[in-house]
Specification:
The protein is of the alpha+beta class. Helix content is 27%, strand content 35%.
Length: 252
């Protein structure tokens, strides 16, 4: 494919995405998630934070219970977002959000998911990302009224110094709920993710509301992503690396 045709195709995909966002959709289910945060006290960053702000990590654990996340979904798409509210400790809440891995709203689609990367200094984007590769395990457990099965995945990141870090995740999904979605962009499993566990956080379902397919009201109207530039994950990582280099050059 020529460079010109590739450009035309990418612009077509962007326009298609924007058009799809502008068309109202109505959720079939609304899933509420709560958070538990347990910072890894063996990490160097934990000790640094405690030196500068004694007691912050404990406050992060406490305020995490105030975080309310919502996943609304149809049969083919879902949107994950943070409910707007006031917190008892804004600084601790911001830190708790970082621990939970929340960086903006996320739209899940059949083949990929789109994240709102709104916190970056080098720009605000919609980033298209592929789903995780899962390993389905034989373990199961009851969570509330649902029989859930275990799945695991991981991703790796490299520090500016070249050190590789591996992050493991465990999901417990319920096949009796055939929505292939979950919190924070984790999905594409044979059922709704009821619980997601990371290194120092757990997101768990607290409530599920189902809507009649014919219902079209403000109550179950799907939110839309912000109208930002859509880029690939590779493009985003390149921009992030360039921004990191600029920051390091200034510091040096």
């Amino acid at each position: 494919m020529s460079k010109k045709n590739s450009c035309v195709l990418f612009l077509f995909l962007i326009n298609a995405t924007v058009f799809a966002q502008s068309k109202k959709q109505y959720a079939h289910a609304k899933v509420s998630y709560t958070a538990q945060i347990k910072p890894d006290k063996s990490e160097g960053v934990y000790k640094i934070l405690e030196n500068f702000t004694p007691g912050l990590s404990k406050r992060v654990e406490t305020v995490a219970s105030e975080l309310d996340f919502t996943l609304v979904c149809t049969d083919s798409t879902a949107l994950f977002y943070l409910e707007k509210k006031l917190y008892s400790d804004n600084r601790a809440a911001s830190r708790a959000l970082l621990h939970s891995g929340f960086h903006g709203r996320i739209k899940q689609q059949p083949n990929d998911f789109i994240t709102e990367e709104l916190q970056e200094d080098f720009g605000k984007f919609l980033v298209s990302r592929l789903y995780q590769d899962w390993v389905l395990r034989d373990e199961s457990k009851m969570i509330g009224n649902y029989l859930c099965f275990k799945a695991t995945t991981f991703y790796t990141i490299m520090s500016p110094a070249g050190k590789v870090f591996k992050h493991d995740f465990t999901a417990w999904y319920a096949p009796q709920l055939p929505h292939k979605f979950g919190p924070s962009g984790y999905g594409n499993l044979p059922g709704l993710i009821i619980e997601l566990q990371g290194k120092d956080f757990t997101l768990g379902v607290s409530k599920i509301t189902f809507y009649e397919d014919a219902l079209k009201s403000k109550e179950n109207e799907m939110p839309q992503l912000k109208n930002k530039r859509l880029i690939t994950e590779e493009e985003f990582e390149k921009l992030a690396a360039e921004d990191e280099k600029r920051w390091r050059d200034k510091r040096d």
